[in-house]
Amino acid sequence: MQLTLAVTGTTKVSHLVLLQAPVIENNSTIYYQAPFMSTIDSVKVERMLKNLQQHICESLETFEPTARFESDVWQRSEGGGGNSRVMTGGDVIEKAGVLFSSIQGDSMPATATQRNSALAGRSYQAMGVSVVVHPLNPMVPTSHMNVRFFIADNGVDEPIWWFGGGFDLTPYYGFDEDAIHWHTTAHAACAQFGDDTYEHYKKWCDDYFYIKHRDEQRGIGGIFFDDLSSPDIETCASFIERVGQHFVLAYQPIVARRHELPYTQEQRDFQLYRRGRYVEFNLVYDRGTLFGLQSGGRTESILMSMPPLLRFDYNWTPSKGSPEEKLYSRYLVPRDWRNESLQG
Predict the structure, then answer these.
(1) Rounded to an integer, what distance in angstroms lies between the CA atom of residue 185 and that of residue 206?
(2) CA distance 240 to 148
(3) How far apart are CA 156 and CA 214, in angstroms?
(4) Which residues are CB-neighbours of 61 under 8 A, at least 6 positions away?
(5) Is 210 exposed, middle or buried (0-12, 13-18, 19+ CB in 10 A)?
(6) Is 338 helix (H, G, I), strand (E, B) or coil?
(7) Which of 303, 297, 293, 300 is nearest to 104 (CA)?
(8) What's the whole-model pTM score?
(9) Fewest beta carbons within 10 Å, which of 72, 223, 294, 344?
(10) Distance (Å, rounded) from C-alpha 254 to C-alpha 295?
(11) Among 285, 288, 262, 278, which residue's Cα sits nearest to residue 310?
């Protein structure tokens, strides 16, 4: 599918713009303020996403002496397919999944049309890369990254397109150094796209990764965005590629610093307990999981994000003054981590 956008004007675009619903004029053309005519096809975006998948897999394999990603290439009867790459049983990484998918469908699922009624009745193409890393050592946080591209078409009007994505961090034992580094790198990913882009996406991330029924944040956040469709498709595609690259720059140093730290069985048990919160969020709230299940996607790949082990303990609470309590009181609270002083 090739997508051509007519754009007008000569004003330099200084920041990314998010549209809750795409702007359609004259029932035929989507107009954005930008300095040139822009043409791109989905094959170019797909190539970039596949390269990003390979780069992330290679970066994670550097921590493992023998464990490697295995590829599960699959096709979808309704159209499209993907490559689910999973690594398990490593010395550092207990389980990691790096999924590329590019699928087509005749109608957008409810999780999409409820947010934007203009998508109803349109066929779609959706592609992206999703990453979840569950380390073995509880001193190493779980990480998540996703970038995605959608095109929705009804065969009459101009296609509606948008990008989404972001990355977030879920520690079990908090370290200020790691949180500051994570958010500093997230800011760097956004910096060339406008002074306020990081702040906007950070707040969106804090709001999104909130477990309502627990009244808890899932982790320390990062950046999250959706419905990104301006100023032009090249700028948006460049941004999501940069997000994927900065995920690696943010996560690798944290894993390197923490994976050899000693830990006790009690700390491992707490990690497994907190993994339960991760599962709760993904199955109840996560848009990507709900989209995949509602669109008849490949269940094994959709649930790739699930940890290999977890535990549910009834009515558990951390001891006062413990490192576990500090996770809740200091780290599972939205903070301006870039401007925090080191405390531990």
Answers:
(1) 16
(2) 8
(3) 45
(4) 67, 68, 69, 87
(5) middle
(6) helix
(7) 297
(8) 0.85
(9) 344
(10) 36
(11) 278
In angstroms, rounded to a whole number, what is the distance separating the alpha carbons of residues 318 and 141?
A: 19
Residue type, 208: Y
Q: Is the dihedral of CA 185, 191, 192, 193 positive or negative?
A: positive
For residue 232, give both structure tokens: 């032009």
Asked whether the beta carbons of 161 and 21 are under 8 A apart, the reply is no
pLDDT, average across residues 284-304 = 85
For 15, 16, 104, 159, 205, the CA distances from 49, given in Å and listed in that order, are 23, 20, 16, 21, 22
How far is residue 245's CA from residue 80's CA, in Å, rounded to a whole number?
A: 25
Three-point CA angle 74, 302, 313, nearest 5°: 145
Quickly state the pLDDT bin for 293 (edges 50, 70, 90).
confident
C-alpha 250/C-alpha 236 separation (Å) is 21
Q: Tokens standing for 199?
A: 């702040």
Q: At what angle do helices 233-258 and 176-191 cross, to 10 degrees?
A: 160
Q: What is the spatial order of strands in the sheet that 38-41 belongs to?
A: 31-33, 2-8, 38-41
User: In whole angstroms, what is the distance from residue 129 CA to residue 5 CA?
Assistant: 24
**β-strands 221-230, 17-18 pairing:** antiparallel
Q: Is 134 a catalytic residue?
A: no
Q: Per residue in 60-69, pLDDT tens?
A: 999 999 999 9
- The residue annotated as part of the active site, out of 134, 144, 187, 246, is 144
